[in-house]
User: Fold this.
Amino acid sequence: KAILFGARFYGYIAGITPNDLRLLTALMIVLSLILGQWKSTLQDQRAQQAALWRKAEEAL
Assistant:
């Protein structure tokens, strides 16, 4: 919300139109979804690696 407020506030000076703000908002939403999925994938991989290490240690 703070980013959008700043964009609206300074958008007037930079000549950003409401349609540009909608495009920027859509891009930020898509980026946040991609980053969230990427983070989730990394966490899953780390959990799998930890489980494999535990299993290997138990076998010794």
